[in-house]
Design a protein that fits this description.
The structure is a homodimer of 87-residue chains. With 87 residues, the first copy, chain A, is α+β, with helices and mostly antiparallel strands. Helix content of chain A is 43%, strand content 24%. The first copy, chain A, has one domain: 2-Layer Sandwich (Gyrase A, domain 2). Chain A is built from 2 helices and 4 strands. Chain A has a 4-stranded antiparallel beta sheet with strand order 1-2-4-3, with helices on one face. At the A-B interface, helix 1 and strand 3 of A face helix 1 and strand 3 of B.
């Protein structure tokens, strides 16, 4: 399964990561809140690294194989970023 | 100025970091919400790295010197962690 556009692939362990930049802290907070909902829906909590105007998501896969369930987080995060920037 | 107890010191650039573990995601969220209030009060947004049951705070200082204002974030974070675990 290919990483979605804009996601970087890490090896050992296999993972996808992406950095999102935002105009201000309010947008960053809004994005983080949307990600919380995604996590609760998918039951998966990736490592999130953030400060005032950026969020880096690191999705890690076990056994060096892309898990389709976890992979869903990537597309949902992209949608959440778009939603954040449009709101 | 010494790093408070439990905070690790990084060099080049100078910084303090600490990892907080929590029993569940609800506690992690509560702690992050308290940190948001600290950031808004101090006007400083350190790098936060978290997943379901941990948060790592990385405070960075400029010009290799401890800035007392930013240093306040460390003590406030410790208080917030205690508050989180007692609630």
């Amino acid at each position: 399964m290919q990483a979605p556009e804009g996601w970087e692939i890490q090896r050992h362990p296999l993972g996808w990561s992406k950095r999102y930049a935002f105009a201000n802290y309010a947008q960053t907070r809004h994005f983080l809140d949307l990600l919380t909902a995604v996590s609760e829906k998918l039951g998966y909590y990736p490592n999130l690294n953030f400060a005032k105007t950026y969020v880096v998501i690191a999705i890690q896969f076990e056994n060096d194989a892309v898990d389709p369930e976890r992979a869903k987080f990537a597309a949902a995060a992209d949608d959440s970023a778009q939603q954040t920037r449009e709101s």
